[in-house]
Amino acid sequence: MSRTTRRVAVIGAGWAGLAAAVQAVDLGAEVTVIEMAAHPGGRARSVDIADGMRLDNGQHILIGAYSETLRLMRMIGVDPSRVMQRRRLELLYPDGSGLALPPGPVHLAFAWAVATARGWTWRERIALLRHAAVWRLRGMRNPGVGTVDDLCAALPSRVRDDLIDPLCVAALNTPARQADATVFLRVLADALFGVPGSSDLLLPTAGLSRLFPVPAADWLMRQQARVQWGRRAMRLERADDDAGWSIDGDAFDAIVLACSAAEAARLAEPIDAAWSQSAAAFRYEPIATVYLRRGDVPLPRPMLALRSSPAEPAQFAFDLALLDQHAGVVAFVVSGASAWLEQGLPRLIAAIQDQATRALPGSFDSAAEVVHAAFERRATFACIPGLRRPRLEIAPGLLAAGDYVEGPYPATLEGAVRAGVRAARGAVSSTRPVPNQPSGMQNLVP
């Protein structure tokens, strides 16, 4: 009797690789996961620090539009309502100014939020509503400009400073002066003007590893998938009959490269040098997260926007006590942190301590204790105009999965998950993988 079960190898156990493995198992494949680290999660996981505390290696959130991530979480037995706090979208500053969407139809909610935003004049509010209406009439398509700065050049400076710039650097991890306007409009279409609930913030009340990576790895092993920790795949080769592949001599019908772009480029180079070159050519943007211990006064809400400047690095702060995690610990997030990377981590920490003292004087003083600092140097690719991203299929039966593969979105957790699901379907099916379909997905803080 001929064998009909597809043998699929997934190289990498980050969010994309785990999504690919879970989806492939669900489609009936025999799955092997190969991960060079000793733990799942990749760049979005929890880590052990001093005194037995576990903190995330960077503060992430999800939003209601993360439909594929939420679907897979439920598939492996994770109830999103138990590990995340759902809140209406808020971009509010410590003084109470900013934008907060009320319940209701998304377009009316956005209009009401703008009309009632504190700190803006009526001229500024009307200008934003007028721009948003024009973007909607154009179908959220780029009118022919390059950067987000170009797209929003006619908006009042306060609207750009308080809303556009923080949204852009948070969602694309690229400053507005460099960020791709087309991708930014896609963010707004899905996050602000998608289906009801798509813009809701999903703030983790458990560490990132408990949201998906660890439960996914456990689920895969219960489903009899093979998970190999601490193994680095060294060489890919086609089978002699071109009907399959091997990894260091182990035979498979299909392979999903769900490792980093650099590692995928190394493995794919003998197969397709042009694909390998495109995967290796990214310029990256770092993200820093500095955890400080506050005093007895909590932040006004779990997530606050902060006004950043050349001397004030952080764009957002999260009070982990209000998220049922660590009492007295606040995470300060610096997206698009290239300039601060050049100055070094000690300078960044000192600047955030000063910023916390000025922005949140009731909660911090200049001697705020540093609990932990995480600096992900290659957090996301720089989402710049004209960026060419490598395609999903490298060769028949050899596919790539990661937040960097072709698609209309910037690097996000949902982007990684969707790429994994698409690659798994292509690996299990005898047909070519389905194209990336636009659907509500985007986040506000990578």
CATH superfamily of the largest domain: FAD/NAD(P)-binding domain
Radius of gyration from CA coordinates? 22 Å
CATH class of the largest domain: Alpha Beta
Q: How large is the share of residues in beta strands?
A: 15-25%
Subunit organisation of the chains: single chain
Unreliable residue stretches: 437-446
CATH T-level fold name of the largest domain: FAD/NAD(P)-binding domain
Briefly say what this structure is.
By secondary structure, this protein is an alpha+beta fold. The chain has helices at residues 15-26, 67-75, 80-83, 106-115, 122-137, 148-151, 157-172, 181-191, 208-211, 213-222, 261-268, 273-280, 338-343, 345-359, 413-428, and strands spanning 7-11, 30-35, 46-48, 54-56, 62-63, 84-87, 90-92, 98-100, 201-204, 226-229, 236-238, 245-247, 250-252, 254-257, 284-293, 303-305, 316-319, 329-334, 369-381, 393-395, 398-400.
